[in-house]
Write a structure and sequence with these properties.
61% helix, single chain
C-alpha cells in the first residue's frame, strides 16, 4: 500500500514538473527537452531516464492540446 502511494506521489510530482516546463516554454526557448525535465526532477529529488521524461512531456502536451513532435534523433 505504501508503494502505491509513493508511485502516485512520484507520478503527480513529475506531471507537475512537466506541466511547469511546457507552460513556461516560449518562442525563444522552444519546447522543453527531456534533459530539462530530468534536471528539474533531480532538483526535486526524483530520478528518471530520458525515455520516461519524454513520455511525461508528451502526456502534458497532449493534455493541453499541443502537437506532439519529436526532433530527429531524440527518439
Amino acid at each position: 500500500m505504501l508503494a502505491r502511494y509513493r508511485a502516485r506521489l512520484r507520478h503527480r510530482r513529475l506531471m507537475v514538473a512537466a506541466a511547469h516546463l511546457v507552460r513556461s516554454a516560449t518562442r525563444e526557448t522552444g519546447q522543453p527537452h527531456p534533459a530539462d525535465l530530468i534536471a528539474l526532477a533531480f532538483g526535486r529529488r526524483l530520478t528518471l531516464d530520458a525515455a520516461e521524461a519524454q513520455r511525461y512531456l508528451d502526456a502534458v502536451r497532449a493534455e493541453r492540446g499541443h502537437r506532439i513532435t519529436h526532433e530527429e534523433g531524440t527518439r
